[in-house]
Structures
1.
Amino acid sequence: MTRRQRSERGSSLVESLILGILLLLPVSFMVVEFGEIQRAAIGVSAASREAGRAFVTSRTTGEAESRARKAAGSVIAGHHLDSSRATVRIAGELKRGSEVRVEVAYRTPEVPVPLLGSIPGLTLQSAHVEIVDRHRSIEMR
């Protein structure tokens, strides 16, 4: 073997190891973050569904919106999300046979990614429509 061949021996292993670490770190970090985004999406979907159910099962019109907002906040917190980043919009009224639409939006925080910068926050949205039962009594307070 010549002197040049001996000095480069094993260099491909070192180069592959360095390149592998440089690629593995951001990719593994992004996989974890995509899991967090999926968790937030599931939480937002569940929050809109539960808020809709809480609204239409309320006894009075006065308590319907507060129950819906409380239910959405509880579900968001139950999915370990920051409830201050969530907004809840409710359209409709508590009348027999009417539709109530609940929209929940959640803004994810910006995520720093090593060696790549950061991923900007996303806004996740979910809407759920519930129909107030036609055969139930509603107190108009």
Note: DSSP finds three helices and five strands in the chain.
2.
Amino acid sequence: MDRRHTKGSGSVQGSALTTLADFALGYAMASTGDLPLALTTASLTIAFADTAVPGDLLTATVGIQRIGTPFANCYLHAAGRRMARASGIYAIGRSAPRDRSSGGTPAAGDGVRGAGHAFLAQPESPDSAGCT
């Protein structure tokens, strides 16, 4: 994160963390099948645990809870500290994947990118399944 993502106090805006969580959750859910799913965020909740500052490298760890009714949890970390926990429910739609050069969504296998920044999304470890 850099200064563009901060508020007056110098910490990263919660909206920037929320966007990262939604992006990571949606990308992980859309990539679960043989073909990328067209998803729309139906519900997203987030609880913040710490503040991020410019220069922090944020990682998103996603744990998919259900695929039939897409539901997943995401944990954002920076420097070993948990920044936030987000839960998302997604509606499955029907649309053809758009070409990225026209501003569309990334195709399966692409890195997760937003606002010119690459985000690292890591799968949830087996010992942390069934998150609380």
Note: The chain has one domain: 3-119.
3.
Amino acid sequence: MTPEYQALSYQKLTQQYFQNAFLLHQQSHSNPWSQTAFVDCLDKPYFGWQAIKKGEVVGYYIGLNVVGEVTLMDIGISKKHQGLGFGRDMLEHFFKQSQLQNGFEIWLEVRESNSRAIKLYETSGFELIEQRKNYYQLKSEVAGQPDSKEDALIMKKVLVP
């Protein structure tokens, strides 16, 4: 464990404490959720936490638990804090929270092009289940050109009690 890794603390995402996580969400996604959709994911059956280092929100995640099947709905880490082990720490925290809610397996979808996240998920025990064709929209970087689509990889991890 690096000193950076050990410095994280966690705060539950609530109606009162979500603004910084929502800003990270907007910065992390090409098609972010609306603030209303984000806030709707703060109450059961959803759960969310934000990772804090030295008083600064550096990441967050949102999960959904439906009868023990947990979905990692969203996870984000600020760009300046990526590559420091926070993603792995946040996943471990997510696994523990999922187990506390009687979760027995975790599902997620990830962009096929997000190789860093895929590697993190694979080394954290997720296995590829399916490829969902043309799931994510990619905005064209050229004015007047049509948007394209990107595949999603569906992954699963069984939680061991």
Note: The radius of gyration is 16 Å.
4.
Amino acid sequence: MLVGIISDTHNEYFRTRVAMEKFAELGVEAVIHCGDLTSQGIIQELAVLPAYIVFGNCDPIEDVKYYAREYGVNCLGDGGTVELGGRLLAVTHSHSNAEVKRLLDLKPDYLFSGHSHIANEWTEGETRRINPGALHRANKYTVGVLNTETDDFQFIEIPR
């Protein structure tokens, strides 16, 4: 299963739409947003695929909850897990060290997070951690695509 990973969109509608179009071209089947959506329009863009989101430190929480329900997007609060493609995927924005620790203690296959606006991947214990980068205030605008069957991951650059 191909999973698109996106974070820190901060109202960047055009870049988010371009990312979602790229995900569609690649055959992505679900999208995970690691927080700092900051508006209804971003949630609406994500809703073209099965989508999972978490709150970032810049998100209006009640608005995000409302529009997630409105558009049928799965809201995992400050962080949570979902099983996709036979893998346990955890997601948080990562502005809370306590939430990161809580999720790592669950020993997921992957932990997706954002907040730093820096694309990166590393292993922590048995968990592969991925930060897809950002579509706002970043040197390069990036998202990620994970193949849960092969564990292949790639960063995708989104044009400025």
Note: Residues 2-148+154-158 form a domain with the Purple Acid Phosphatase; chain A, domain 2 fold (CATH 3.60.21.10).
